[in-house]
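call fold(seq) -> tokens
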Amino acid sequence: MRRLTLPGHPDTFALTERPTGHHDDDDDYEPLPGSLTLDDAVLVASREVQPGDLVVAYFEKHAEHGLRLADHVVGPFSAAPHALRDCPCTGCEECTEVRTWTLADPARVADVSSRFLCLLPADDDGPCVHAYPNEPVAVIRAATVAAAEDQADEQPLREYHVAWAADFEASSPEEAAQMAYEQLKSYATDALPPVLEVRDPDGRTVVLDLMA
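ret:
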């Protein structure tokens, strides 16, 4: 966990470890791309988010024990920030909600651009992503993302041997194999992935617990 501060903001923000895999809220948290980690993230106000920054986490509105905990973005996204009045959206649920709020009081029309901004316009995957200009958000800067992508392009792919083992009580090899197959299929929906043994092309072996 990293403790972050924002100039001029009284709170301390806790960038906790990023969730992995499937969770009780039915969200499948996507891993950060390439070699990126949360150590690459910085804390900024939403108005300071730049095009191409990777948005990885928001933060809870209220502090617990002096800390505002991270609310991780399920699918980190590359930001395309713009003023709400410039949003190309044709009427997603988020923009409709803001429009309804505005029409309820004509005096609010002038406040919309100062109260809200859009970090990402709506697409087939979901509505616009709105934020308050001063809202703290954790991002990985576009330059860092680009550097990681360039590094990944430079590294040739290598062949790794991945093995999984388990013991089963069965009456025949065929039954044991079927039981192993069923257990492997269950990992697609189970929150507990198997422990894997990975051997690289140089013969080095590492045991990886994906839940560690």
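Residues 84 and 117 are 5 Å apart (CA to CA).
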